[in-house]
Structure formats: structure tokens, C-alpha cells
Amino acid sequence: MGTPRKIVIDPVTRVEGHGKVTLHLDEAGEVTEARFHIVEFRGFERFIRGRMYWEAPIVIQRLCGICPVSHHLAAAKAMDMVVGVDRLTPTAEKLRRLMHYGQILQSNALHIFHLASPDLLFGFDAPPEQRNIIAVLNQYPEIGKWAIFIRKFGQEVIKATGGRKIHPTTAVPGGVTQNLAVADRDALRAQVDQIVDWCRAALVHHLGFVEANPALHRDFASFPSNYLSLVGQGGAMDLYDGRLHAIDAAGATLLDAPPADYVSHFAEEVRNWSYLKFPYLRSLGREAGWYRVGPLAQVNVCTSIGTPLAEAARRDFMATGGGAPVHATLAYHWARLIVLLHCAEVIRDLLFDDDLQGNELMATGTRRETGIACVEAPRGTLIHHYTVDDKDQITSANIIVSTTNNNEAMNRAVAKVAREELSGRDITEGLLNHIEVAIRAYDPCLSCATHALGQMPLMVTLLDHEGHEIAKGVKQ
């Protein structure tokens, strides 16, 4: 018998933001506790208070440099509600959609090719110096080409619709500030067929991995769960707008409601060891009401996809579960590639829509004090909620991001892998990477997701030139 041990993975690598995992092992080497800690804090819900409501789409997206479009558009949609606009002009609606699908395309490409593919291509236990995008580029040049050019195309879509590739500026309360220039449209049209072909090829390549590793795909870090996603008319996939739809592990409907009603249906639990909250469905309670979001949920929850190649891929995906939801955690990657292909198809269709060159950019309405909106970000369901006073200043904000929605699921995945693969074994770097693989499947954006409960103390330590502590103070 040994002694109890604590193992810390700090930081978790190949994710956006900063997090760590702590594992507690007993005398026999069995894992007794495993937690995924979010150690980063960002106070944007506080920063935005007192700002004018029209600043929100610009300011709040500084939460993240990977998925700023999602926050830009969610805030703009919430402020549409504040200015009383329930329906945008066709040009504004379609320009925002094009920007949004460009964002999901580039972000999903970044994750699947740059962050996740080293594990899938080289193996979870491969040497750490091999598990990176440079090794992928060297050994799999075709995949490296997809990694670079699919993401580049998505960024060009964002630039053409949003004014720049990172932190766009064109979505404003009630509409947009510009249409799509003909020169930009034609440049994107010239590339889009190739992008669709590459997305389809990437999906086919990944299916080879699934077929070669059926047990791994079925069992690794997997468990049944509820799922949440936006859906459009008739339950079709809609990543920009729609109703909040939740299903249980068998596929039965748990919730179907407009985003404006989210407060009635969701609660957020706080735990003292993480800056991430733990959302759940009020109707089921905190023990049973947690759920998963993101590509796996987006594909599981919808009843169809409105583009032909992605719809065929969805049907093949759902067939593996006999029509019921697919619960495999590694299926996030398969689903992500289906969504990637769908985005490319949607972008192609939109680029041939003349409404994008329209001149009616803004709509008007009657002022309201509350704005609530939802989009499907690359990592899943994103909710923005603001209140605005009669001086046009934001008085409160609540943001529930995709990674927050997945918090319980990520912790369960970490615990499952730790207990099944680390208990009673000599702990190696490769084995610890298995835990990171489980986390990476969710593509967490940790910096977007953090909250604090109550006051967060500022701790200041003063050191002399030799590093000795002179004074320490805490400001609440």
C-alpha cells in the first residue's frame, strides 16, 4: 500500500483559456476525486454596467479572440430587442447569418485540425512533442492544407461581413452598418466550392478513424445525458436563431421555449472550487437537470439539416444510435465536422443571394428595457441577457456561454476517464493526456465562461529586489 496522492494537470493544453485538473488517489492508487477547475476570471458582466446599450456588441466580444463573432451577434440580437426590432431587414438578417456561419466554420476548423487532430492522428499516448499542428503539417500535408485554408476562408467571410477578421463592428442594434461588397462576394464565390469539397473530404477522413476505433469511439469518456440546442422551424438545425430545445437521453423533448423565457427554465449553481457556474434545467433539478451543448447536441437535437451533404451525414451519424441520441464523447468531433460541412454549404447558398447587396440595413421599433438573445456558438448554446435604464445605460448583464453549459459534463468526463484509465496504474504523461483528450472534445473556451460569486478579493504582495516579501494586503 502506498500513500494518498494528489496529481495536478496545470495547465490543460490545446484549449482556449486557462484551466487545470486535480486528481486525488487513495493508498491503493484508486482515483477518489477528479475535478476540472477553471482558474481564470474575467468580469465582463460587471465591466459592461454603465455603458451605453449600443456599445454592448463591440465591448462584450472582447471576452474572446477565438469566438468574438458569437458574442458580437448575441449582444446585437439582445439589443435588437431593446430597440424594439423583432424582425431585421432581409439584408441585415442574411449578412449577420453569413458572418455567423463564417465564424463557426473557422472556429470548428481551428479546433478539429489544430487542437484535436494530433490526438486522433498520432494517438493519445504519442510523445508530447508530436502532438501539435506542426507535426500534423509535416506528416499529413493534406490535413494541414485543410487546417490552414478552411479556417482562412472563414476568417475572410468574417472580414467581408464584419469589417475585420477579429472583433467585427458591423452588427448594431436594429441591423447592420454595411452590406456585402460585390468584390468581396465574388472573391468568396470563387473559393467556396473548394471549401465545401475540403470539408466533405475531412469528414470522410474522420469516418475512417471512427471505423478503425469503434470501441474507443463508443466508450471513451462517454455517458448518457440531456442535450440543449437552438432549432429552427420544424426542428431543423439553425445556428443563428430559433427556439431553445432540450431532449433527454432517449430523445424525448424536455423543453421547447423562446430564448426570452430562459430565466424560467434554467438555474445556475455555484461551487466554491471553480469560477464556472453549473447550469441545469429547473424542471429536473440540479442532480438530473444538467445537459450537454455544442456540435454533439446540435446534431442530436435537430430533426434535419437544411443542406444536402450535411443532412446525409447527419442521417449516417444518427443511424449509429439507432435514431436515438449519440452519447459518445468522441462523437463531438464527428458532429463538429458535420456542422463544418453544413456551414460551408450555407455560406455557398448565401453568397448567391442578392439580398446581401441590399441597401435597407436598419429597422426601428418601440424601446424596451430588457434584451435577451441566443445563438449557437461554435461550442454550443450562448445566451446574453441585459437590462437598460431610461438613460440608455446597461444596468445588468448575464452571459451563459457554451462552456458554462458543458461544465457538469466536462467534470463527469474527467472523472470517468480518471477512474477507468488511471486507477491502480503507474501514472504517465500519456495517461494524463487521456484526461485532456476528454476535455478537448468539448472545445472549451475557458476565458469566456468565468463568473465569480459575491466579492472577489484583490491580493497584493510587495517584494524587494531579492524577492523577499515586504508586505501583503487584501482588498475586498
Could you give a short description of this structure?
This protein is of the alpha+beta class and 476 residues long.
Topology summary:
Elements (H helix, E strand, L loop, with lengths): L4 E5 L9 E7 L5 E8 L5 H4 L8 H4 L8 H15 L7 H33 L10 H7 L1 H22 L8 E2 L2 E2 L5 H31 L1 H6 L6 E6 L11 E5 L5 E5 L4 H4 E4 L8 E4 L3 H4 L2 E2 L2 H7 L6 H12 L11 H21 L18 E8 L2 E9 L5 E7 L1 H4 L1 H15 L7 H13 L4 H4 L8 E6 L5 E7 L1
Parallel strand pairs: 6-11
Antiparallel strand pairs: 1-2, 2-3, 4-5, 6-7, 7-8, 9-10, 12-13, 13-14, 15-16
Total separate domains = 1
Radius of gyration: 22 Å
Largest sheet: 4 strands, mixed
Q: What is CATH's topology name?
A: Cytochrome-c3 Hydrogenase, chain B
**Helix run count:** 17
Instruction: Give the distance, in angstroms, between the N- and C-terminal Cα atoms.
Output: 45 Å
The CATH H-level superfamily is Cytochrome-c3 Hydrogenase, chain B
Structural class: alpha+beta
Mean pLDDT, as a whole number? 90
The total strand number stands at 16
Tell me what portion of residues adopts beta-strand conformation.
Answer: 15-25%
State the CATH class.
Mainly Alpha
The shape is globular
Uncertain ranges: 452-464, 470-476
Characterization of the model:
The chain has 476 residues and is α+β, with helices and mostly antiparallel strands. It has one domain (44-449): Cytochrome-c3 Hydrogenase, chain B, CATH 1.10.645. It contains 17 helices and 16 strands. It has a four-stranded mixed sheet. Helix 7 (182-212) packs antiparallel against helix 13 (331-351). The radius of gyration is 22 Å and the shape is globular. It starts with a strand and ends with a strand. Mean pLDDT is 90; it is low at 452-464 and 470-476.
